[in-house]
From TrEMBL:
Single GO MF descriptor: hydrolase activity, acting on carbon-nitrogen (but not peptide) bonds, in linear amides
The organism of origin for this protein: Coptis chinensis
UniProt lineage: Eukaryota, Viridiplantae, Streptophyta, Embryophyta, Tracheophyta
PANTHER family the record matches: FORMAMIDASE C869.04-RELATED (PTHR31891:SF1)
Protein name per the record: Formamidase
SUPFAM superfamilies given in the database record: Acetamidase/Formamidase-like
InterPro entries attached to this UniProt entry: FmdA_AmdA, FormamaseFmdA
Length: 546
């Protein structure tokens, strides 16, 4: 059986029962002789459930009669409230209403459930890991519905909570969207998706940050860090900590890495053709390939490992779609894998619609991520859920999105950031310019500048007892802020990386006194790490610390 992660439930509530009928009966007085009902240990993470202050006597009924007759001295004994009022509170209607349709708002409807004991393709509604207009929707929602989508972590459970570092995006959906008249979203519309709530799946409250081996794709700094590495993170409510990166604890800004609509065939063909050109000709034509060493340059369609939801593998339909279906790794015109860390509670995504019904999908849940997700498998990856509402903006693409390319399909989504995020007041900011490790000048190249900013931060923070691998993974998943600070001052682009000081248990700012050294400041254990057995050259920084 899979190991359970998350708080231990010590006081459970059954909303169908009265307060005194609970497994652990509730009380409404203070007295030294009221016996305890549970016991916890110091530092244990535990969960206490509770009824509202009236014990369920005040309901969602569209009436004030329950308030009028409430006895505040014994709030749980509301004899005038029928027994059904103590049931699930969202099911209570107004018995006095002449309109039987008047009803309190429901909790979100679960439209895509996940069983963590099953593989992605074994789910009740099988998951998919490609973009294609002919992948059929697994469910349908109506504009204005409040619904819940569950999802696996992006690897489909391949990476485990263990000491192995050798462990593709599985998406929940597609979901067809219709309006209140039953008319589906149409090509040219905008689909506004509001994130009302999100989080890890209960009982699976852990995550991981990792780098791939350089021979298996690597990450942003794979020429410096070629080995596969992994750190496990455990969640304490909004906070995360890792045994592999000790001395660090921070609140997460949870968000989906991927949310997008299905492409049309025309758009899919555009993707495949341009990405094929990059993969086939990029090494000869793109100078940036000499500085950034992630490979391949593009992940072209492949039937290997392909899962298409409800379409059965091995059928002629599956073979036809798999040969052209786009991989989910990059973000594109449909949204997709944009990895915008601030896309959390209260955010809205305005997605272009390319096929009837929109057929949007989501996945790749992150507990936290740094700007750039530099280690590639670099957020705190986890299973999770989204609770969403949708609105169809008819003709919205033409009204609000200007094509930046040769066709009306060359558009991009708009994102509205929500009001919820961690508050930090002090930051240490590292600068990078578009000069690479060999000292060669590049012209206004923000990628080279950001790489240098990240390398500067890694080298600096490794002076405080951490290995460089620990800092590399940390900068990929902690709530650090990346910026393009200057893009017009030839020849140097200027990028910055701001790190919140409060996430560390020590002061990391420069001081007039010497930097502390010795065993007392070494942070152990290190990240989980495999050997690198390839023969690709490793980039050395002649001026960096060892």
């Amino acid at each position: 059986m899979a190991q359970r992660h998350g708080p231990r439930l010590v006081v459970a509530i059954d909303l169908k029962k009265k307060p005194w009928e609970q497994k652990l009966p509730l009380h409404n007085r203070w007295h030294p002789y009221i016996p305890h009902v549970a016991e916890v240990t110091v530092s244990e993470l535990f969960r206490v459930e509770m009824v509202d202050f009236s014990g369920g006597g005040i309901t969602h009924s569209y009436s004030a009669e329950d308030i009028k007759h409430a006895d505040l001295s014994i709030t749980e004994e509301l004899d005038m409230v029928p027994l059904e009022a103590y049931g699930p509170r969202h099911l209570v209607t107004n018995p006095a209403s002449t309109n039987s349709s008047v009803m309190a708002p429901r909790t979100p409807k679960l439209v895509v459930p996940i069983d963590l004991r099953k593989k992605p393709w074994e789910q009740k509604l099988p998951l998919h890991n490609r973009w294609h207009p002919h992948i059929p929707p697994v469910t349908e929602v109506q504009e204005g519905d409040f619904f819940r989508v569950e999802m696996v972590d992006w690897t489909g459970g391949v990476v485990q909570d263990n000491n192995s570092a050798m462990d593709v995006h599985y998406l929940s959906g597609p979901i067809r969207v219709i309006d209140t008249d039953g008319v589906p979203a149409k090509p040219g519309d905008l689909l506004a998706v509001e994130i009302c709530n999100l989080g890890p799946l209960p009982g699976d409250e852990w995550g991981y940050t990792a780098t791939f081996d350089r021979e298996n794709g690597g990450g942003f700094l794979t020429d410096h860090f070629p080995s596969a590495t992994k750190a496990i993170w455990y969640f304490e409510g909004i906070y995360a900590y890792s045994p592999q990166i000790p001395g660090v604890r921070f609140p997460g800004l949870t968000h989906p890495g991927i949310i997008g609509t299905a492409p049309s065939m025309e758009l899919l063909d555009i993707w495949n053709e341009r990405e094929k050109q990059v993969e086939e000709n990029g090494l000869q034509s793109l100078k940036l390939c000499e500085v950034v060493h992630q490979r391949p340059l593009a992940n072209l369609p492949s039937s290997n490992g392909c899962h298409l939801g409800l379409i059965k593998e091995g059928t002629s339909e599956w073979e036809s779609i798999a040969s052209k279906a786009a991989r989910t790794i990059p973000g594109r015109e449909n949204g997709g894998n944009c990895d915008i860390k601030n896309l959390s509670k209260g955010s809205k995504i305005y997605l272009p619609v390319f096929v009837e019904g929109a057929n949007f999908s989501t996945g790749d849940m992150h507990f936290s991520q740094g700007d750039g997700e530099v280690s590639f498998c670099g957020a705190i990856e986890m299973s999770g859920f989204l609770e969403l509402k949708c609105e169809i903006i008819r003709g919205g693409m033409r009204k609000y999105l200007t094509p930046m390319g040769p066709t009306p399909l060359h558009v991009n989504p708009i994102f509205e950031i929500g009001p919820v995020e961690p508050r930090f007041s002090e930051w240490l900011v590292f600068e990078g310019i578009s000069v690479d490790e060999s000292g060669r000048q590049h012209y206004l190249d923000a990628t080279v500048a950001y790489k240098r900013a990240v390398l500067n931060a890694i080298d600096y923070l490794s002076r405080f007892g951490y290995s460089k691998e620990q800092i590399y993974l940390l900068l990929s998943c902690c709530p650090c802020e990346g910026r393009i600070s200057g893009i017009v001052d030839s020849p140097n682009a200027c990028a910055t990386l701001a790190i919140p000081i409060a996430i560390f248990d020590q002061d990391i700012r420069p001081k007039s006194s010497k930097v502390p050294v010795g065993p007392r400041i070494v942070r152990k254990p290190d990240v989980l790490k495999c050997s690198y057995d390839g023969n690709l050259p490793i980039t050395k920084n002649p001026g960096g610390t060892t």
